[in-house]
C-alpha cells in the first residue's frame, strides 16, 4: 500500500467477501485523515472479517465497521482477542484525552465490536461465505496469524502473511510455513534489510553493568505488546546468570505493558519451546526487585530514588506516556543511559533524540540532554528480507506475489529480490484502494 500503517484488504468472490484486518493509519498527519474515510468497498458483500494480530495498525479501525453497518463475525485467535481489547480501549481512551485528535470511536463502540468476535484456533479451517479460511502462527506477536484462504468455487489458494515474525523469536513458537498457495499477499516492512544476529541480552548486560558501576539510571522507552515482555525476560535471565545484581530495581512503568504481561502469562501454549520449559519451574516475567507501577503515585516516586535503577516505560517512540516524566527528571544527567529498543518514526521525540538534538522542551521544562543515547537494533519483531523470501519460497505453486505494508524503498528492493529468487512469479505493488484480479 506504499505506507506501513492502516493495513486492510478486501477479498471478494462471486457473492460474498471478506476483509483481512482493518488497521489504523498512524504517524503522518495526512495519513491520519484516512482513518475517517469510509473505504470504497461493497459492504453488502462483506460476510466476515479476519484479524491477523492485535497491533493498532492492523486492528485499530475495527470499531468503525459497526458504523458502516457491519454486524457479522470478526474472527481472531483467543490471545489476539485479549490483546486487541487492550489496544482498542487504549486507543479510545487516548482519543478522548487528546484535544488534537478527533475521536474516532468510544469505549461503547469497542465493547460492541468485541461482542462480534468469534474465536478461532490455528490450523483449524472454517468458512466465511464462499471462502475456507485457515489461521497459521505467524510468530510475530502473541496470537499473531498468517491466513490461508481458499476460494471453494475456483479452488484458488491465497495466503496473507499478516506481519511475519523475526523467527525464531525468543518468546514465541516459530513462524508456521504455508505449504501451498497460488497467490501471496506479503508484508515488506524490512524488505531491504538483513537483521544482525540477536545479541540484545549481551548489549543490555553491558548497559546495566555501566549503570551499576556509576549508580546511574537506565531508561528504556518500550512498546507494551511483546517488546516489554522480551525486556523483562532478558532481565530475568541476566539476574539468574549473575550478570545483573538482584538488588538493581526495574520499574515497569506502563499500565498497558503490565496488563499485556498478564495476558502473556495466560497463553503458555503459544510460547517457544525454551520458554515453555522454563515456565514450568519459574515465572519468566518476574524477578527480584521488579516493581510494577500500576498507579501514577508509584510512577512519581521513581524520580526521588537515588542510585542505580532501570525504568521501562511507554510510549515506545516517546510520543507520550509516562516516559516523558522520566525524560524531564533524568535526561539532564550524564549518569543516565537512554536505550532505544525499537523503531523511532519520523516526527517523534524518540527520533529527534536519537538523531542528536541537545535540548528538549516539555511542558515548560527545558532539559539539556546530558544522557548517553544508545540503541539496540536487533530486537525487531518483523521478518527481514531473507525471512520473507524463505516464507515465500516454502509455497508450492506460487504464481503471484503482492507486496504491501512497507514504505516505497523496502518494497521496491524486495520486489527485485522476489523476481530474482522466484523467477516466473508475477510481482504486484498495489497502492491504497487498488484492485487486483487473482
Ligand atoms: Zn504487527
- The residue fraction in helices comes out at 25-40%
CATH secondary-structure class of the largest domain: Alpha Beta
**Annotated CATH topology of the largest domain:** Metallo-beta-lactamase, Chain A
Q: CATH homologous superfamily of the largest domain, by name?
A: Ribonuclease Z/Hydroxyacylglutathione hydrolase-like
Can you offer a commentary on this structure?
This protein is of the alpha/beta class. It has 14 helices and 20 strands. Strands 6-7-8-9-10-19-20 form a 7-stranded mixed beta sheet, covered by helices on one side. Strands 13-12-14-11-15-18 form a 6-stranded parallel beta sheet, sandwiched between helices. Strands 1-2-3-4-5 form a 5-stranded mixed beta sheet. α4 packs antiparallel against α8. The longest helix is centred in the first third of the chain and has 20 residues, at 78-97. It binds zinc ion. Residues 53, 55, 58, 140, 163 line the site of zinc ion (ZN).
Walk me through the topology.
Layout: E1 8-12, E2 17-22, H1 29-32, E3 46-50, H2 56-59, H3 64-67, E4 74-76, H4 78-97, H5 107-115, E5 117-119, E6 126-128, E7 131-137, E8 145-151, E9 157-160, E10 183-187, H6 200-214, E11 217-221, H7 227-240, E12 250-253, H8 255-265, H9 273-279, E13 290-292, H10 296-301, E14 309-313, H11 323-330, E15 336-340, H12 349-354, E16 359-362, E17 365-368, E18 372-375, H13 385-393, E19 400-404, H14 408-421, E20 426-428
Parallel strand pairs: 2-3, 3-4, 4-5, 9-10, 10-19, 11-14, 11-15, 12-13, 12-14, 15-18, 19-20
Antiparallel strand pairs: 1-2, 6-7, 7-8, 8-9, 16-17
Amino acid at each position: 500500500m506504499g505506507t506501513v500503517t492502516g493495513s486492510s484488504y478486501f477479498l471478494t468472490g462471486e457473492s460474498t467477501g471478506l476483509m483481512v484486518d482493518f488497521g489504523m493509519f498512524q504517524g503522518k498527519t495526512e495519513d491520519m485523515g484516512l482513518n475517517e474515510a469510509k473505504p470504497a468497498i461493497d459492504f453488502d458483500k462483506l460476510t466476515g472479517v479476519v484479524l491477523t494480530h492485535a497491533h493498532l495498525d492492523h486492528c485499530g479501525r475495527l470499531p468503525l465497521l459497526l458504523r458502516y453497518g457491519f454486524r457479522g463475525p470478526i474472527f481472531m485467535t483467543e490471545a489476539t482477542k485479549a490483546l486487541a481489547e487492550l489496544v482498542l480501549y487504549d486507543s479510545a481512551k487516548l482519543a478522548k484525552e487528546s484535544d488534537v485528535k478527533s475521536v474516532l470511536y468510544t469505549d461503547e463502540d469497542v465493547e460492541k465490536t468485541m461482542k462480534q468476535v468469534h474465536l478461532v484456533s490455528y490450523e483449524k479451517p472454517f468458512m466465511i461465505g464462499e471462502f475456507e479460511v485457515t489461521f497459521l502462527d505467524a510468530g510475530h506477536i502473541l496470537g499473531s496469524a498468517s491466513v490461508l484462504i481458499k476460494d471453494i468455487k475456483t479452488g484458488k489458494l491465497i495466503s496473507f502473511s499478516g506481519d511475519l515474525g523475526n523467527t525464531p523469536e525468543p518468546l514465541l513458537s516459530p513462524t508456521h510455513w504455508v505449504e501451498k498457495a497460488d497467490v501471496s499477499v506479503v508484508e515488506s516492512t524490512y524488505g531491504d534489510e538483513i537483521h544482525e544476529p540477536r545479541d540484545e541480552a549481551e548489549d543490555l548486560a553491558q548497559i546495566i553493568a555501566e549503570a551499576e558501576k556509576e549508580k546511574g539510571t537506565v531508561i528504556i522507552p518500550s512498546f507494551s505488546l511483546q517488546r516489554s515482555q522480551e525486556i523483562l525476560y532478558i532481565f530475568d535471565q541476566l539476574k539468574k546468570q549473575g550478570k545483573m545484581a538482584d538488588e538493581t530495581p526495574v520499574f515497569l512503568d506502563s499500565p498497558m505493558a503490565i496488563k499485556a504481561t498478564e495476558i502473556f502469562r495466560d497463553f503458555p501454549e503459544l510460547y517457544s519451546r525454551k520458554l515453555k520449559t522454563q515456565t514450568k519451574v519459574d515465572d519468566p516475567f518476574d524477578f527480584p526487585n521488579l516493581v510494577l507501577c500500576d498507579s501514577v503515585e508509584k510512577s512519581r516516586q521513581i524520580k526521588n530514588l537515588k542510585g542505580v535503577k532501570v525504568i521501562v516505560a511507554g510510549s515506545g517512540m516517546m510520543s507520550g506516556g509516562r516516559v516523558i516524566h522520566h525524560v524531564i527528571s533524568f535526561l539532564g544527567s550524564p549518569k543516565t543511559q537512554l536505550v532505544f529498543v525499537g523503531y523511532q518514526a519520523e516526527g517523534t521525540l524518540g527520533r529527534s533524540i536519537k538523531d542528536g538534538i541537545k535540548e528538549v522542551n516539555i511542558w515548560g521544562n527545558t532539559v539539556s540532554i546530558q544522557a548517553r543515547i544508545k540503541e539496540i537494533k536487533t530486537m525487531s519483531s518483523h521478518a527481514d528480507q531473507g525471512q520473507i523470501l524463505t516464507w515465500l519460497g516454502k509455497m508450492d505453486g506460487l504464481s503471484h506475489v503482492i507486496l504491501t505494508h512497507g514504505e516505497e524503498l523496502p518494497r521496491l528492493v524486495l520486489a527485485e529480490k522476489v523476481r530474482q529468487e522466484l523467477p516466473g512469479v508475477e510481482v504486484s505493488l498495489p497502492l491504497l484502494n487498488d484492485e487486483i484480479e487473482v
